[in-house]
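If your schedule permits, I should be very grateful for your opinion on a structural question. Thank you for your consideration; the sequence and its tokens are set out here:

===
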Amino acid sequence: MPSPHLPAPPPAADTLPAATPIAFVRAIALAYARRGMDPARALAQAQIAPQRLQDDTARITAWQMERISEAAMRELDDEALGWFSRRLPWGSYGLLARASISAPSLGLALARWCRHHGLLTEGITLRLGEEGGMAEVRLDDLPPPSHPLLREFCHVSVLRNIHGLACWFIDSRIPLLEAQFSSPAPAHQGSYAVLFPTPAPVRFGAPYTALRFDARYLDLPLRRDEAALNKLLQNALPLMVQAYRRDRLLVERVRQWLHTLPAAQQTAEGLAPALHLSPRTLHRQLHEQGASLQALKDAVRRERAETLLTRGRQAIKQVAQAAGFSNEKSFSRAFRQWTGLTPGEFRRQAQTPPAPGPQ
């Protein structure tokens, strides 16, 4: 996940890889229509032109899916986005996570999550099972949503949600072994290879919907606590929208190298060998985690500059050079964009002792 110490980057929608089918945006628009509401604001926040909803081949990025999902959940006050007969108000899935966070193992946490989901809605049932060394999260409809698109979106979202949360609980990627869906194969079935990467193709028209993975993961202890969960819930949608990768430390590893490498090597070509990646893969994986190399470089430069200005007495020109800028003018311009202050103003404020309190 993106580092909680960095602000959420605002990338242009067309700079990230687009893999999510537009059908899921149509499902969100359908939820709005059923409530007699207009999705225009949510579409605009996600930089999705309304006319794209008519293009069956259109795809959107993970960033766009996160934005429209959050906007719709808040506007509709429904984290289920119209899947069930009763709304799930904002914070419902957070309650499920809180009810599971104290479990000693992933298996018990997932069992609690599935059981408690039934307290929120009777629209679906979720069960955790284990057989032959394979764990299974099973989803059944009771009854299925009246619109097939909402049903598909529900199954995909719920399974992505529980899989992402399971990975987060133990801070480890959980490779999927099998995925099956009770609905017929959609026109965009090719996207499922990205949504649910498994050794075998995703199966459609199955008796029920399910994900399967190595049961040994169920025995692993949870590595998260209440404080971590509170941070997660501030930005939890990437768990549902983007696949959890084991190298969630990639952002921090890049930051560490940026702190040590000379400015000339702070490029994708300079960093990639140290991270055992190609420059292209580095950019892609950073994008998938909601970050960018430029944003991380700026964050590291800012941290270094603020530390030097707060604790040191170096001239502004020397601080600029230490922060990786070629001249004082470009440093001052960037610093003002970051903080709203010039380097000199920031130093004066940081080094001014607080006024004494009342005696």
About this structure: Strands lie at 18-21, 59-61, 124-131, 134-141, 176-181, 203-204, 209-214. The longest strand covers residues 124-131. Residues 148-170 form the longest helix (23 residues).
